[in-house]
Design goal:
alpha/beta, 6-stranded mixed sheet, 4-stranded antiparallel sheet, 29% strand
Amino acid sequence: MIECKNIIKTYQSGQVETKALKGVSFKIEEGEFVAIIGPSGSGKSTLMHILGALDTPTSGEYLLDNKNVSELDDDELAEIRKNKIGFVFQAFNLLPRATVLRNVMLPLIYDEIPKEKREEQAKKALLNAGLGEEHFFHLSNQLSGGQMQRVAIARALVNNPSLILADEPTGNLDTRTGEIVLGTFQELNQNKHHTIVLITHEREVAEHADRIIMVRDGLIVEDKKNLNKRIANK
């Protein structure tokens, strides 16, 4: 599904050149649950932006479903983000005065999908994300942090993307709630066969994935199967 070939990303500020990625190569197969871990300044956020088609590499190739994302124009990148990638962020990014159902339906409105079909897809996504029907018509600001993150996961699922990209999804949650959210990702991977890439700086969070890629100083310093996978307590 994903193949990165010698990805280099350089930022230029005046006369100062900063190389955030220094030749990163790896593959992620369909149905994998992979954590990319690294400290602040390691290059993991830059790599996340490239995987999410939010940025392009200075050199090298990024292939998603055998399409060279590095060569696409802005409109084609937007299409990739809309249809192939579901994003889950640390800050939830929900509309506080909109209902849970409407928050999840929003990506479908822009596709001019009929309202009845939008509601059906949104309800299915919410149930798959582990949020019960009793919450569908609550405003998002009436929910707990863990419930809001499940709504964000449902919104990421609603277009049935081939890839879910989660950037520090437990960063604003307490430990117990974070475990619940990580359990949701594990269920989506194991039972719904979604490909999940989790970006984190916490080893304990990364241990919930099946494979861990460690980034440091713009390079991959470790890439191995996780033989000590943690099963989230739900």
